Amino acid sequence: MKPDSNTEPEEDFWELGDEEELPLVTDSTPEDKPVKSEESEADSEEGDSEEPAEEEPKNVSEEESEEDAEDEATEVAPEEGSSKIPILGSLTQISTLEKISLLAVLVILIGAASWGISTFYKNAPEGKLIDFTEDFPVEGAHAGIAEIETYWRKPVRTGENADHGVQLNAAIIPCARIVLHGSGSASLGISFRNGEQLIGDPHSLEVKGGKFVQTGSPEIIITSTAGFENLSEINAYTNADIDPWSVLIVEGEPSTNPSYTQDDKKLAEVRIAAESRD
């Protein structure tokens, strides 16, 4: 029985030893754990170091995706360009059409203006250019004139030398001093004119032997029965703002009434000078 008891403690001893060894194993296991942790850290570090290697394919994929996007953009660009090109073309076509239309309108306007101007000049009354006589003496078929002097003055309303037949609204009237040349005889028609328009009443004078029958001398002063209604108009006449007035002398055979419009019988026509006298 004792031996059995003795053996049992031995077994207990070994069991205790085993129990004591267990801590060693446990001690070894903690020692192994840090190794494993170091390995895990190393693995983790390797994993961290390997992450860029894993990111590189990601970058490649991103580059590929960017290239694909660019390819798609290049593929889309022609479509967008094709959609824009017709628009630009249409805009250029519209601008060209606008230019053509503007040119057409300008041509039409220029043509209409030229046609209007030509029609105006064709149909408008043509003013007659007056050829004033400047060189004296002048000789006609029946009489001659040595000198014609013209000027303006106020009409004389009263007295022995009153101007007869002058219009009441005339403030200043044209006058002409005529001196005959030679010894001819004729009937002279004298009129004052504003261009081709007759101003006032015409005068008929008889000339015999180179003298006026009315005065008995080769000199006479003739006044118009109409003139400027305002004295200030003589300033405009002096500044050439008013068309020139003239005195026209037409000759005919003695004891006749010569026409005041027959140019072939015109003896002289003189511009009324821009000079006023009292």
Describe this structure in words.
With 278 residues, the chain is an alpha+beta fold. Helix content is 46%, strand content 23%. It contains two helices and ten strands. The chain has helices at 2-123, 233-238; strands at 138-139, 144-153, 173-181, 186-194, 197-208, 211-212, 219-223, 245-252, 266-271, 276-277. Strands 1, 2, 3, 7 and 10 form a five-stranded mixed beta sheet that branches. A hairpin with a 4-residue loop joins strand 1 and strand 2. The chain starts with a helix and ends with a strand.
Give the topology.
Elements: H1 2-123, E1 138-139, E2 144-153, E3 173-181, E4 186-194, E5 197-208, E6 211-212, E7 219-223, H2 233-238, E8 245-252, E9 266-271, E10 276-277
Parallel strand pairs: 2-10
Antiparallel strand pairs: 1-2, 2-3, 3-7, 4-5, 4-8, 5-6, 8-9
